[in-house]
Fold this sequence. Notes:
Elements: H1 3-14, H2 27-46, H3 48-77, H4 80-101, H5 114-134, H6 141-147, H7 154-177, E1 185-186, E2 190-191, H8 193-215, H9 222-244, H10 251-277, H11 281-303, E3 307-312, E4 317-320, H12 322-328, H13 332-335, H14 340-343, H15 349-358, E5 366-373, E6 379-390, E7 396-405, H16 407-447, E8 451-455, E9 461-464, H17 466-472, H18 476-479, H19 490-506, E10 513-520, E11 526-537, E12 543-552, H20 554-576, E13 580-584, E14 590-593, H21 595-601, H22 605-608, H23 619-633, E15 638-645, E16 651-663, E17 666-675, H24 677-709, H25 715-739, E18 746-748, H26 749-763, E19 771-777, E20 781-783, H27 784-805, E21 812-820, E22 824-831, H28 848-859, E23 863-868, E24 872-879
Parallel strand pairs: 19-21
Antiparallel strand pairs: 1-2, 3-4, 3-7, 5-6, 6-7, 8-9, 8-12, 10-11, 11-12, 13-14, 13-17, 15-16, 16-17, 18-20, 21-22, 22-24, 23-24
Amino acid sequence: MSFRWIVNYMKSDVFRLKKLGFDKFSYEKYLFWLALLGSMYAISFSNYLLFHVLVELFSILIASMVFVLVLKSKRFLENDYLIFIGIAYLFVAGFDIIHVLSYKGMCVFPGLDSNLALQVWIVARYLEAVSLVVAPVFFISRFKNNIKLDMSKDIGFRTIFLLFALVSLFLLLTIFHWRIFPDCYIEGTGLTAFKITSEYVISIILLISLALLYKYRTMFSVYVQNLIALSIFLTIIAEFTFTLYIDVYGFLNILGHYFKLFSFYFIYLAVIDTGFYRPYDLLFRDLKQREEDFKKHAQILDQLHEAVISLDFDGYVISWNKGAETLFGYSENEVFGKELYQIVPEYNHCLVLNYFDDSSENCGKHISEVEMRRKSGERFHALMSCSILRDENDIVNGTVCYILDITDRKMKEKQLLQMHEELEKRVEERTKQLKIEKDKAQNYLDIAGSIIIALDVNRNIRLINRSGCEILGYSKHDLKGKSLYDFIPGIYISNVEEIIESLMNKEDEDLIKYFETPVTTKNLEERYVAWNGRIVKNDEGDITCVLISGNDITKRKKMEKSLEKSEKRYRLLFENAGDAIFILDLEGNIIDANKKAEDMHGYAINELIGSNIRILETEDVAQQLPSIIHRILNHEWFDEELTHKRKDGTVFWVEVGAEYFELENQSYILAIERDITERKRANELRLREIHHRVKNNLQVISSLLNLQSANFKDNTVIEAFEESQNRVRSIALAHEKLYNSRDMVSIDFGDYIQNLTHYLFHMYLVDSSNIELNMDTRNIYLNMDIAIPLGIIINELITNSLKHAFTEGSAGKINVSFYKDESNYILTVSDNGIGVPKDIDIKETESLGLQLVNSLVEQINGKMEFENNNGTIFTITFETTE
């Protein structure tokens, strides 16, 4: 609120002295006030203490008179604001009395200084300001209804009086007993900051009270409102003067006391005007307002189509609106003052009154439908509602009747009744049809092999088919209304509820959820059911039920448990097997492996799974993997000894057994490996020993043949012994190479050819300056089954070339080559000698050597080609399969 608003408010309402009633003052009254104020002002110069006592006593007297006037006129005031202020001013006057008695120089409270007088002064001003702010609260109807306090009555008046007494007692205790009230004056220093601040705070509180007075100005007459506003305004000015004076005896201090005196006086005038001069103004104003409201209500009643009839206590008509004239055909003059039953025989006044007297449960109305008659004799149906009227003492003083023509409504009700009967007939027919359809549907459900259950939103069973009853072991009657969770073990309920809740939250009719749970039957047997759930909606889109269908999967579950046990046993055997076990796909990728495979190869299981089996094989074995897999896929049992390598690169021997199998329409290879390194080492030692002994025995045989040939003179015999000796030597050389080989399985055949040919050249004392030997051999390893026959073939062919290809002293060349192409081994022995006579067929020759060559070529499944052109060329080809 701005200061400009306050000035305008005072300028327009407060300072219009004529409106305040000052025009009623006589000149004698003006002279009295002038003389009183002037004399007190004169006294202040000679004896300020006397001036202070007189001016405060005048204020106290006026405040006390205000209380007395309120006390005596509270039943006329009908204004809780003024009554509240009247009580407050009595206690303000009480604090002002203490203020006068404690003033410096009065000597009533010896030992106490000026601080006490100012403390009591501040308390009085706070009490006055706060009371002016609180008083408008009694205009708030909601507050009054809540506290149910009427200060015009004795109990309300006494309650407020007691409240002020308690507050005043508390304030006095803070000053005199507890001495906790802040100091307002310090000797030698002057006014405290609390005292000065309090004056400003009190002024602000008074400004707020002035604003509230303006807000509720309609609760006062303009004259009283202006008197109270002027009183508050003068109190504010007084507070400001008490903050501005320098000298206690100065003009501002005196002026402040004058403003205080007049502020009390204007409150006094407001109470006198309201309680004595014009006590009935508010009553007449309320009556005027009620008269205007009555006229408005009468106009509204005349505009209503319903008949509204008011009756006195004896049932005589006292009002008859336009609606009643239209409904019955009687004018208001025709019925006014007559008993209603004379015009409306159907109305029984005594019955209505007795209804309200006898019934304590009625709601204030007596409603009935009756058939009535108009003035013309026409009969019509009407709805009559009668209510009683009570005075302010809750005594019945009349009734009011509302009558509505419901003829059209009754006709429509009759039509509706007929339609209802027809509809009921149709509904009954439709119900029969629906029952038939329901029975058919139930039959379809009952012949279904699956369990079908319809649940309501609370998960209770609304419908279940025969299969469900048979599995659970209950009748349909027993199951209907029971919760689905009555049959599901507790540990599964939260999961099922989560699934059903998700179906209902998503509200998708096409969404189907699958879940499996055990159910407990009536005989406490546990059966497993696989469920499919979905929601069902009505035409409005609301969810009507949750439909679940299920199949008994108990047998399957038992099989799964059996398989699970079997799987555990298999896994136990698999993991604890003494051999490494691998499960491979058809590409050789490792699908699974056991602990032994991990330990054997030095790889962790997670390193093995997903890797190819080639990481465990040596290079030569890895090259054979496609052919090995091909053999396995042809359902050939694979069982061979192969070399593998560990993660650290160590090579070791394994015996591998592998077989093809199918599982769940997938093809796999089962490979079982056993480490045979130690066994191979033992066999190798044994084989070395055997080959060493065979070689030695063959050398003994060769020596025996050599010794035996010395006993013969026939060159042919000697030559036969030498050829046999060479053949034995070629075999012994193969065993010697095998004895010195790396794996006791194969020999380096290229090196073997070198050693054999040099031995033959030395045996036949060939002059290397005449016969040139050209060798083209590779480091090709052959096992003994091939190496020995092939060695004898080379021995025979080179021996033939050395003996028969060249004439004595002639020069020549012998060429030996051995190599391997993509699929075959190829051995070529040739010379540029005289060749073989044309009439000799090498296939049918009598030569033991060539016969032996042909036989050995067949033994190794080879093929021999012969060329006889500028020498001889023997080409022998055989497959690389070992």
